[in-house]
Amino acid sequence: MTPEAALRRVESPAAVKVALGNRSYDIHVGRGLLQRAGELCAPVLKQKRVFIVTDSTVAPLYLAAFESSLRTSGIRADHVIVPAGEASKTFDELARVLDAMLAAKCERGTMIVALGGGVVGDLTGFAASVLLRGVDFIQVPTTLLSQVDSSVGGKTGINTAAGKNLVGAFHQPRLVLADTDVLSTLPRRELLAGYAEVAKYGLLGDAAFWAWLETNGAAALSGGDNAHGFLRHCIVTSCEAKARIVAADEKESGERALLNLGHTFGHALEAEMGYGGELLHGEAVAIGMAMAFDLSTRLGLCPASDGARLRAHFEAVGLRTAPPRTGPRGAITPAMLVAHMAQDKKMKDGALTFVLARGIGKAFLTHDVPAAVLEQTLAAALKG
Ligand code: NAD
Ligand code: GLY
After folding, report:
1. 82-109 pLDDT, tens digit each
2. How many whole angstroms separate alpha carbon 128 and alpha carbon 108?
3. Active site residue: 155, 232, 233, 311, which one?
4. Enclosing domain of residue 46
5. 70 and 49 share a domain?
6. Is-contact 187 156, C-beta < 8 A?
7. Torsion angles phi and psi, residue 49, rounded to 5
8. Does residue 291 share a domain with residue 142?
9. CA 345 centroid distance within chain
């Protein structure tokens, strides 16, 4: 797309469709969508009734405005508030949310709504998938990460002692409302973590979008009124890419695994750092993508200059590309990260699936990575 066409699109209202037959749904992206929630949700409701799950940070910011918009359209809303943060993706919190839904006498026709970031979206979507053997839900993502990734595609779930997202269901939402206005209250660190997932779509399959980000990414992240158009272009382009991949491979039997670019390394780092506030998911993915490009270069597959471009852009916007060298267990070693990788739920016949790249926009899947080259990549990254 030419820069002129990109800017024209930045100014126009946007809806992206996820094409899944009779489970197809729209993703609306733009400003002021929370205020229009009643009008936008009404067409997908079976009853004039919703049950909202949100978190303790988002509730005081946006719950009243959201519920007020629903009431204006004659829609009754009940809600439950979970503690903000990853620690809410547990069996205990799932049980509390389901009990609240049942106590409110939710019926099969009651629409469940996730109002919050990826934690609320994953927990609520999973609750909706099992409530009364499965009810519909709407995603109202309020972080950049959830607007470009977790609210789209139907992966829902919780964490257990054995690891992250190991219990869950594929359950597609009926509608996604991504309001860019709510990003103005998001801490910059969270915005940047979401930006890593935006950049992922350029790196894995869209070199022109990557080049657009090199020019305009800083404007998208700048905060303030001017950023909205740039953010909308980031969100629409990301959702279009994800929608196309999900429509082609909903249950991740092939192409969808490309969305895990940087995640094999990133998940290992997150696990080693203990899922506290030390390393956010998006931050780990940014570091992981730098490592995936380095591994691709070491295997003679990818020009070193493409990895250098990745690192230069991430560092220019404020995303680190070097992993932390110490975690709760002390100095991090390649062996520690390899041990986490071996727990990956995308293992196939005992072999890890890697997303590597032949260049920017040219990601591909392979099981064929010699252990010695993996070890060299990890050792080099941990040396910094
Ligand atoms: P999050 O939901 O924890 O949100 C981050 C923080 O921002 C929280 O403290 C939250 O309360 C706060 N917040 C949310 N919206 C805000 C706003 N508008 N203003 C101010 N504060 C706000 O984290 P996240 O980064 O959105 O999502 C991470 C989760 O998403 C992880 O659990 C990850 O596993 C999951 N995920 C799922 C998928 C998927 O396909 N289902 C994909 C990627 C990530
Ligand atoms: N976040 C990866 C996926 O949805 O497949």
Report:
1. 999 999 999 999 999 999 999 999 999 9
2. 10
3. 155
4. 3-185
5. yes
6. no
7. -155, 130
8. no
9. 18
Residue 85 in contact with ligand 1 by CB distance below 6 A: yes
Ligand 2 centre to CA of 285 (Å) is 12
CB 149 within 8 A of CB 140: no
Q: Which of 41, 31, 124 is nearest to 76 (CA)?
A: 41
Residue 22 in this model has a pLDDT that exceeds 50:
yes
End position of a domain, from candidates 185, 210, 227: 185
- What CATH number corresponds to the domain at position 23? 3.40.50.1970
Do β-strands 155-160 and 137-141 pair in parallel, antiparallel, or remain unpaired?
unpaired
Within 10 Å of residue 38's Cβ, how many Cβ atoms? 21
Q: Exposed, middle or buried: residue 272 (CB in 10 Å: 0-12, 13-18, 19+)?
A: buried
Q: Decide the pairing of beta strands 76-82 and 49-55.
A: parallel
- DSSP SS3 for 260: helix
- Residue 95 tokens read as 């049980």
Q: How far is the CA of 104 from the centre of ligand 2 (A)?
A: 32
- What b-and-e string marks burial along 277-311, b requiring 16 or more CB atoms within 10 Å of the CB? eebbbbbbbbbbbbbbbbbbbbbebbeeebbebbb
pLDDT band at 161 (very low <50, low <70, confident <90, very high): confident
Residue 9: the pLDDT is 47
Decide if 269 contacts 262 (C-beta within 8 A). no
Ligand nearest the Cα of residue 257 is 2
Does residue 45 sit in the same domain as residue 152? yes
**Nearest residue (CA) to ligand 2, atom 3:** 259
d(CA 224, CA 221): 9
